[in-house]
Amino acid sequence: MNTPWSDVPNLLLPALGETAAMVGVVMVLVALLGTPLGILLHNASPAGLFPNRALYAAISGVTNVGRSLPFLVLMAAVIPFTRFVVGTNIGIGAAIVPMTLAGIPFFARLVQNALREVPQEVTAAGVAAGGSPVQIIRTVQLGEALPGLVAGFTVNLIAMIEYSAIAGAIGAGGLGYLAVNYGYQRFDGTIMLACVVTLIIAAQLLQFTGDRIVHRLARTIA
């Protein structure tokens, strides 16, 4: 039996709030940990400030492993670690752990790609001016790559919303849990449609907002 449309907000809005909280916490952790990892990846590469083949190979290998596993497989594989960290393998806290582990290497590669787009002449000018590696990374590389970093953050953010829906399968709450437990298991077409439309609208709004910010930053830097 389908839920009356008048009752949908009572189920949808709390689930939307849970998804927003889950993704918000994950993206803070991803940005804090993925950004320095991406910076290290770029600058340890042959095109970076301190090329180191062994270091780059090690970090790149670990990052590739993190990116190669489908999220559902990763989520199942890290259940012991998740239980150790948060004390359970169900709920929002349990979903944050695998989502963060999946998001960090993904964002690190996006950061690396954004820094790679910074012209070598700009970095060389910073070196010639006597800037330290930390100064060059902060003012030259990150400053010039800011539009690309925001674009990468937007892509990662939308991916984490998708992952949060998958995490609903382990009772993580949010729109995914609502879609699985009401829309799928109870054959409630109204709830399923509402969840799908909400996820699509959220992704579109975030992408539009991210694109606008990137456009403004690009004009400012130019």
CATH architecture: Orthogonal Bundle
Strand count, sense and barrel status of the largest sheet are:
none
- The rounded Rg comes to 20 Å
Structural class of the helices, strands and pairings?
mainly alpha
CATH superfamily heading: MetI-like
CATH topology: MetI-like fold
Write the layout of secondary structure elements.
Elements: H1 8-44, H2 53-68, H3 71-77, H4 79-86, H5 92-116, H6 120-128, H7 133-144, H8 146-167, H9 174-184, H10 189-221
Give a structural overview.
The chain has a single domain, classed as MetI-like (MetI-like fold, Orthogonal Bundle). Helix content is 81%, strand content 0%. It has helices spanning 8-44, 53-68, 71-77, 79-86, 92-116, 120-128, 133-144, 146-167, 174-184, 189-221. The longest helix has 37 residues, at 8-44. The mean pLDDT is 89.
Give a short synopsis of this structure.
Helix content is 81%, strand content 0%.
Keywords:
single chain; 222 residues; mainly alpha; MetI-like fold; 81% helix; elongated
